[in-house]
Structure of TetR family transcriptional regulator:
Amino acid sequence: MSETTRRRRRAPEPTERKLDAERSRRLLLDAALDEFSAKGFAGARVQDIADRAGVNKQLINYYFGGKEGLYLAIGRRWLEREAEFNDPSVPLEDLMVRYLRHALDDPRGSRLNVWRGLTEDADQVADEAPEEFAEDLSDMERRKAEGQIADDLDPAAVMLLMMSAVAAPVVMPLAVRRVFGVSATSPEFQDHYAEQLRRIIRHLAAPPQETQAPPAS
């Protein structure tokens, strides 16, 4: 046997196998997000996901236990990424823009949420991860107590409003064109919209306490 043949048949090192597995998982997650955001869960095909990732479709079962497991893994990956920029110490207006920039940079998540809203049972989805929404709402209630949200506003309504405003340029590009006269993907619109959202969030804050005049002597 030649030296070339021995090199060709050399078993990969453990670190090489680990890197290859991580790469395959990453490729599958990205490909699945592409497919699910374009076609929804029901419309996405395992073979199309594998073809887009450039790997054997059997790896979907091997790494994720099937199509549904891959779908759930996308949600877990989003939570990991969200934790990187969802800082409770950041003012609400800045947090809003962080979410907006993320949605504009990668619109697939917003598109996938539209598919979920149109095709999945709302009660079942809410029961899947109630702690996630409870934690977000708790943070909004804390911000209200700090004065970042006015006393007469419901933190849940403010949170839903923020989620909708973040997704709007992605899921309503025709409305953006009609209302603003520019493309939702243009830097001109995105910078203007981000600044407007900052100002809107500021207006939702509790008004500063008026300074009482000292009593007359």
